[in-house]
C-alpha cells in the first residue's frame, strides 16, 4: 500500500514511481501476503456464530485500501461499522482480496462472523438473520457513510468456510483512456488518462509474452513478502471497448433541442457557429474523444502491485516507448528496476464475470449451496454434503481429497515424547540472544495423487528456516524429503477421505522403518495431522517421532507458494501434552482394515469394512503428545507388535490408526478407526 499520508492524482506518473518504494505488508494483491486472521474467523463449526459470505462493490477513491487500519478510512472499517450498527456488537470481517488505496471493486467477497447470543437472555442462541435482511440493513447504514460501499449479495455459509481460502482465481480490469482531451469528470479516478495514441496489436503481442508461468520478479513492488516470485498468469489481454461506459456514446450523435428557436440548438453540420463559437466536425459541447482500452489479468494470485506494473509496461509498448523484445528483456531481468514506474491505482478494478462467482470463483453448487472437498466414506460421514458425489473410483476420490498444498508446522520428539530443539545453526540470532528455545519448523507438504496412467502418489515434506516475526518471511528451505509410492514404500493403505497409513523404508538404512499415519480431521476436511513413528526393525522398538500439523492451502502447485501467516496455525511442540484422562479408558471403535499377510512387496490397498469393537486403553501404554495427540506401542498375540497413534479431534471422540507387525518384522495388518468414549455414549 502507498504511504497513507500522501495522496496522488490518477495521472501523477512521477508520484506512482515514488509509491513503488512506499509499500506496506498489510495491503496488496498477493494471496500470499495475507496476515493472520482472528481466532474467531479460523474457528471450526461454532453453533453460536453465523458466518455470512458477503459480496461488496466500492469506489476506492476515498479509501486507504480495503484492509482495516487504526487511523485511516478503509473498506473493511466502514463495513464493520455498518454491521456493528445493525447487529449491535463488533463483527470480524475477512476479505478474499485486498486492494490498494484508490482501487475500485465491482465485486470483492468477504466473510463476516456474527455472534447469535442474546443480550437479554445470556446463553440463549438466537436464529440467524435472513441474508436479504442483512443486505438491506447493512446497505442502509452504508449509505449514511458517504455511500461508496454497497453490499450486492449475502449468503449463509458454515463457520469454517473461509472467503480467502475458497477463492480459486482472481480477475482484475484496468482501464486506460487514450486521447488529448481532458477526462470527463465522470471518469475522474476511474481510468488512467494516456494522451498518446496506443498501438493495440503491439500491446496484445506483448501480452502473449507474459501469459503463463514465469518468474515475475520484474513485476513485483519493493516490500513484496511473497516467498516465490513465480506466478501463473492464466489470462492477460488488452481490448478496445466503448469509451463512455456510464452513458450512451454521444460523440457520433446529433443533438436536437425540441424547443425550436432555442439559441443552444445544435446541428450536425460540418461547420456550425453558436454564440460566436465554431466547432469543426462535431456537435457543440461534445468535444471529448477518447479510445478506451481494458487490460484483463486473471490468475489464482498476484504479487504485490504486479498488475499495475504490468499495465505500465503494456502502456509503454502501446506508445512505442518499448517494444515486445523489451518486454521479454524486462521479464528475464528479474528486477523491478528494469521495468517502468507503476501505473496509478485509479484505473484498477477487481472485476467479476457476469455471475455471482465474480472474479473470485467459489466452489458453490448450482443452487449456491456449499459443497465440501470431501464426500462420504466408510470412515467419515457428513450430513452437510448437498449433492451426491459422482461415481468415481475410490482412488480417484482419495486423490482429490489428499492432493494440494498443505502448510503448517512440524517438530521432532524423542522416544519419551519430549520435543527436540532445532539445531542452533538454524535458529535466528535474535532468538539465541533472547535465549528463546525453538522447537518447530514451518513446513510445506505439496501432495499429488493421480489415478492415471497408474496409481501415483508423491509429496515433498519441506522444512523452512525459522524467522523472527511473521513466518510468511520464511523463504529459505532447510531440507526437502520427497517420497512417492515405489521401492521405498512397503505398504500404502488409504481411505477416500484423504487419510492414509504408509510404511516407508528410509534409503540407505535397512534397520529402520518409518510408519506414517496421516489423519484428516472428520470435522474439518482441510485440517490433518501426520505422525511418523521411527521403528528399529531388529527389536521392533520406537526410536523417535515426527509430528506435523497441517492445513490445506490450495490446489497442488509443487510448493511454489507458501501460506505464510495465512496458514492459520502456529508452533505446537512446547504446548502441554494431552492429559491421560482424556484418552485412557473404555472406547467403542468402528474399524476399517487392510491386510498384507506378511507380504514383502509394495502394495496399495483401500481400507474396507466396518467392524465394531470395544477396547480399553491403559495409561501405562500411552505416550502423550501435544495438540490432543498420542502414540502407543503394545504387544499382541504370538509376538506381534502394535504401533498406534490417535487424535482426540473433539472431547470423547478420537481418530486412530494401528499397524500390526509380526515377530519377524513383517507388516500384517493396518486398521483405521473412529472411536467414541463409552462414558459419552
TrEMBL record:
Pfam families: PseudoU_synth_1 (PF01416). Residues 55-165, 206-349 form the Pseudouridine synthase I TruA alpha/beta domain. Signal peptide: none annotated. SUPFAM superfamilies: Pseudouridine synthase (SSF55120). InterPro entries: PsdUridine_synth_cat_dom_sf, PsdUridine_synth_TruA, PsdUridine_synth_TruA_a/b_dom, PsdUridine_synth_TruA_C, TruA/RsuA/RluB/E/F_N. One of its GO terms (biological process) is pseudouridine synthesis. Residues 1-45 are annotated as: Disordered. GO terms for molecular function: pseudouridine synthase activity; RNA binding. Keywords: Isomerase, tRNA processing. Gene3D superfamilies: Pseudouridine synthase I, catalytic domain, C-terminal subdomain (3.30.70.660), Pseudouridine synthase I, catalytic domain, N-terminal subdomain (3.30.70.580). Residues 1-10 have a biased composition (Basic and acidic residues). Belongs to the tRNA pseudouridine synthase TruA family. HAMAP family: TruA. This is (rape) hypothetical protein. It comes from Brassica napus (Rape).
Amino acid at each position: 500500500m502507498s504511504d497513507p499520508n500522501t495522496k496522488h492524482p490518477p495521472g501523477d506518473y512521477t508520484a506512482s514511481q515514488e509509491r513503488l518504494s512506499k509499500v506496506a505488508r498489510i495491503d496488496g494483491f498477493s494471496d500470499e501476503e495475507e496476515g493472520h486472521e482472528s481466532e474467531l474467523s479460523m474457528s471450526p463449526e461454532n453453533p453460536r456464530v453465523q458466518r455470512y459470505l458477503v459480496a461488496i462493490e466500492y469506489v476506492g477513491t476515498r479509501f486507504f485500501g480495503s484492509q482495516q487500519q487504526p487511523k485511516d478510512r478503509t473498506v473493511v472499517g466502514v463495513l464493520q461499522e455498518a454491521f456493528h450498527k445493525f447487529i449491535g456488537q463488533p463483527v470480524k470481517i475477512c476479505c478474499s482480496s485486498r486492494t490498494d488505496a484508490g482501487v475500485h471493486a465491482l465485486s470483492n467477497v468477504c466473510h463476516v462472523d456474527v455472534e447469535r447470543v442474546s443480550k437479554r437472555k445470556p446463553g440463549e442462541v438466537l436464529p440467524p438473520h435472513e441474508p436479504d435482511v442483512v443486505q438491506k440493513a447493512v446497505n442502509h447504514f452504508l449509505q449514511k457513510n458517504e455511500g461508496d460501499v454497497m453490499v450486492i449479495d449475502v449468503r449463509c455459509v458454515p463457520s469454517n468456510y473461509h472467503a480467502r481460502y475458497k477463492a480459486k482465481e482472481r480477475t482484475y480490469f484496468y482501464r486506460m483512456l487514450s486521447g488529448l482531451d481532458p477526462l470527463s469528470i465522470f471518469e475522474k479516478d476511474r481510468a488512467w488518462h494516456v494522451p498518446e495514441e496506443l498501438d493495440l496489436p503491439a500491446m496484445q503481442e506483448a501480452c502473449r509474452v507474459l501469459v503463463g508461468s514465469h518468474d515475475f520478479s520484474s513485476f513485483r513492488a519493493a516490500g513484496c513478502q511473497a516467498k516465490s516470485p513465480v506466478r501463473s498468469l492464466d489470462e492477460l489481454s488488452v481490448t478496445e471497448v466503448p469509451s463512455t461506459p456510464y452513458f450512451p456514446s454521444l460523440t457520433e450523435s446529433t443533438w436536437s433541442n425540441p424547443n425550436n428557436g432555442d439559441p443552444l440548438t445544435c446541428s450536425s453540420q460540418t461547420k456550425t457557429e453558436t454564440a460566436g463559437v465554431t466547432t469543426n466536425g462535431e456537435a457543440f459541447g461534445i468535444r471529448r474523444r477518447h479510445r478506451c482500452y481494458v487490460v484483463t489479468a486473471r490468475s489464482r494470485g498476484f504479487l504485490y502491485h504486479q498488475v499495475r506494473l504490468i499495465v505500465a509496461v503494456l502502456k509503454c509498448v502501446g506508445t512505442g516507448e518499448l517494444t515486445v523484445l523489451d518486454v521479454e528483456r524486462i521479464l528475464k531481468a528479474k528486477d523491478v528496476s528494469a521495468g517502468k514506474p507503476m501505473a496509478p491505482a485509479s484505473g484498477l478494478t477487481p472485476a467479476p464475470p457476469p455471475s455471482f462467482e465474480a472474479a473470485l470463483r467459489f466452489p458453490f453448487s448450482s443452487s449456491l449451496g456449499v459443497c465440501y472437498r470431501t464426500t462420504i466414506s466408510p470412515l467419515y460421514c457428513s450430513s452437510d454434503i448437498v449433492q451426491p458425489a459422482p461415481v468415481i473410483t475410490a482412488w480417484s476420490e482419495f486423490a482429490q481429497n489428499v492432493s494440494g498444498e498443505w502448510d503448517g508446522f512440524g517438530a521432532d520428539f524423542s522416544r519419551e515424547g519430549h520435543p527436540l530443539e532445532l539445531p542452533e545453526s538454524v535458529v535466528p540470532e535474535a532468538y539465541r540472544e533472547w535465549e528463546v528455545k525453538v522447537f518447530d519448523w514451518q513446513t510445506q507438504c505439496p501432495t499429488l495423487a493421480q489415478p492415471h496412467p497408474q496409481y501415483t502418489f508423491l509429496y515433498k515434506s519441506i522444512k523452512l528456516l525459522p524467522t523472527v516475526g511473521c513466518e510468511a518471511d520464511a523463504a529459505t528451505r532447510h531440507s526437502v524429503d520427497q517420497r512417492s509410492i515405489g521401492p521405498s514404500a512397503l505398504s500404502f493403505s488409504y481411505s477416500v477421505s484423504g487419510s492414509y497409513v504408509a510404511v516407508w523404508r528410509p534409503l540407505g538404512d535397512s534397520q529402520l522403518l518409518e510408519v506414517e499415519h496421516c489423519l484428516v480431521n472428520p470435522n474439518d476436511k482441510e485440517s490433518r495431522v501426520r505422525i511418523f513413528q521411527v521403528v528399529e526393525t531388529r527389536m521392533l522398538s520406537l526410536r523417535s517421532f515426527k509430528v506435523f500439523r497441517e492445513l490445506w492451502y490450495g490446489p497442488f502447485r509443487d510448493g511454489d507458494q507458501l501460506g505464510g501467516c495465512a496458514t492459520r496455525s502456529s508452533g505446537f511442540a512446547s504446548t502441554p501434552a494431552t492429559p491421560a484422562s482424556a484418552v485412557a479408558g473404555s472406547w467403542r471403535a468402528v474399524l476399517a482394515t487392510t491386510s498384507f499377510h506378511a507380504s514383502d512387496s509394495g502394495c496399495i490397498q483401500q481400507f474396507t469394512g466396518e467392524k465394531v469393537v470395544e477396547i480399553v486403553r491403559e495409561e501405562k501404554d500411552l505416550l502423550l503428545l501435544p495438540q490432543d495427540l498420542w502414540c502407543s506401542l503394545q504387544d499382541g498375540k504370538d509376538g506381534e507388535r502394535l504401533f498406534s497413534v490417535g487424535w482426540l479431534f473433539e472431547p470423547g471422540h478420537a481418530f486412530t490408526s494401528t499397524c500390526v507387525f509380526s515377530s519377524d518384522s513383517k507388516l500384517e495388518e493396518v486398521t483405521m478407526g473412529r472411536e467414541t468414549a463409552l462414558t459419552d455414549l
